[in-house]
Write a structure and sequence with these properties.
Blueprint (H helix, E strand, L loop, with lengths): L13 E13 L8 H8 L5 E8 L4 E4 L5 E5 L1 H12 L4 E7 L20 E11 L3 H10 L9 E2 L4 E2 L20 E2 L5 H14 L23 H7 L7
Parallel strand pairs: 1-8, 7-9
Antiparallel strand pairs: 1-4, 1-6, 2-3, 2-5, 3-4, 5-6
């Protein structure tokens, strides 16, 4: 049974509930979409970028930085985001990188014809922490699973309602491997890679050089948390 959106918004900080993957976007004719901007967001000028997602009763779109609609989300994903909005989610952002993930299940995105230009995106879901439980319960019911974000603003708290946490843990940011998009640049990534490559040339008898930062890929759902809980990994 669908839950009604609360009449009054809770006075709590905005948090990120997590990310939905395997979402497809396209720029078909007949929807007044900005095709020039669509080509640009397919090849972002940064390693990874966040784009606003706008919802309406007819469709859900990715918007360019200047506010133009540039792409439609597949119908199943659009319906899911609208239902999340009814349950308290207040904001969605599309995460697009230069090397986007390939969808793990293409059949769920069959609402977008395969002969149109497509883009694989992930969507960060934001809202008040008070609504985290109802967001998580709805997604479980619909067999949608929140993953750890690939990218997240440094000012935003990450609070995944589908992620197990003990009473002593109030935030799961430290158990994720997403990158902070604030200040991310090609030069910073190149510098980190150079430091890591330098450590590979150390002789076996020599003292191990610890890199300042480590470039890692995101783990699957719950993996990072479980590794820390079991004491297998002490720092990522």
């Amino acid at each position: 049974m669908a839950l009604d959106r609360p009449d009054q918004e809770p006075k709590t900080q905005l948090v990120c509930y997590g990310t939905l993957f395997d979402i497809r976007a396209a720029c078909p004719n007949g929807f007044a979409l900005d095709k020039a901007q669509f080509k640009k967001i397919k090849k972002p000028d940064a390693p990874i970028k966040l784009f606003k997602i706008a919802t309406s009763s007819s469709h859900v779109t990715i918007q360019s930085p200047d506010g133009n609609d540039t792409a439609l989300l597949d119908l199943r994903s659009a319906s899911c985001l609208r239902n999340l909005q009814e349950r308290g989610a207040t904001e969605f952002k599309g995460v697009i990188g230069r090397f986007p993930r390939e969808p793990s299940n293409t059949s769920r995105n069959e609402n977008i014809s395969q002969d149109k230009s497509q883009l694989n995106v992930s969507v960060n879901v934001y809202g008040p922490i008070d609504f985290a439980s109802r967001i998580g319960e709805y997604l479980l019911q619909e067999k949608h699973y929140l993953q750890h974000p690939d990218a997240l603003e440094s000012r935003i708290t990450y609070h995944n309602p589908q992620c197990f946490r003990s009473p002593s843990i109030t935030e799961v940011r430290n158990f994720t491997n997403h990158c902070i998009v604030d200040g991310l640049s090609d030069s910073s990534i190149t510098a980190d890679l150079s430091k890591i490559m330098d450590t590979l040339d150390v002789e076996e008898e020599s003292e191990v050089i610890s890199p300042i930062r480590i470039v890692v890929t995101p783990l699957l759902k719950f993996e990072a948390f479980l590794l820390h809980s079991l004491g297998i990994v002490h720092s990522l």
